[in-house]
Amino acid sequence: MYKSEVIEEYDMPITEELFQLQDKKYALFHSKLMPTVSQDSIIGIRVPELRKIAKRIEGSWEAYEFINKLPHTYYDENVLHGLLISGIKDYAECIRETEKFLPYVDNWAVCDIMSPKVFKKNKTALINKITKWSSSANVYECRFGIKMLMSHFLDENFKKKYLNIPAGVKSDEYYVKMMIAWFFATALAKQWKETIVYLECNHLDKWVHNKTIQKACESYRITAAQKEYLRGLKR
Q: If you placed Cys at 82, which of 35, 113, 146, 157 could pair as Cys (CB 3.0 to 4.6 Å)?
């Protein structure tokens, strides 16, 4: 539900306000991190500034109108959209807005900025959505699904069978494979005994297998002995 009252008066629409915060040098720097995004579509706004805007308009009619205007023109608008979705407090509404937005996500940064807080309280329903998203042919929907699995199901809600979700994803897409490797490196740190089998038995694509080992060996959460063992499994 959205508040009908105005939180704070701003004469300019959101996109115009974003341009008031433009940092062209930052836009140029940031564009180099996202080869899939046109440089012309990046206004150049740092995430802390976008978080401030999201916090200010969260739950307002202005936010409602903004997230219902798809597609957006600028990358920064998409980041703001992701932040607004992350703040939605009703689970059903958050899922609805997430699934409406995912087809328009075209880069890793927007995908990874999305982290809905309400997901933490709805794990039973969420795992079914994660299974659906992770099996999608859409690169960033798949990446988002695996990231949500990593964020919510590697600790107290962990089940060994959940490792089969990313292990079963077959994709040549770089940003999907990197997410799978990130997932398994994190799983090694949190659930070593159940996860190491996937490397010992070569259940992962060779590139993902080796990238998982690399990322795990870069982690401070993996012991020196574990890192030595992992290096011996490199293919």
A: 113
Which tokens sit at 118? Answer: 């309400």
How many residues would you count in the chain? 235
**Integer Cα distance of 76 and 79 in angstroms:** 5
| Amino acid in position 180 | I
- For residue 21, the 8-state DSSP code is T
Domain locations along the chain: 12-117, 122-235
Burial environment of residue 173 by CB neighbours within 10 A (0 to 12, 13 to 18, 19 or more): middle
DSSP 101-129: HGGG--SHHHHHH---GGGGG-HHHHHHH
pTM over 0.85: yes
Give the model confidence (pLDDT) of 83-108 as tens digits.
999 999 999 999 999 999 999 999 99
The pLDDT tens digits of the residues spanning 218-230 come to 999 999 999 999 9
Beta-carbon neighbour count of residue 197 at 10 Å? 11
CATH fold label, 122-235:
1.25.40
- Check the CA dihedral 64-65-71-72 and report its sign: negative
User: Which strand (E) or helix (H) includes residue 80?
Assistant: helix 75-86
Element (H, E) at 85: helix 75-86
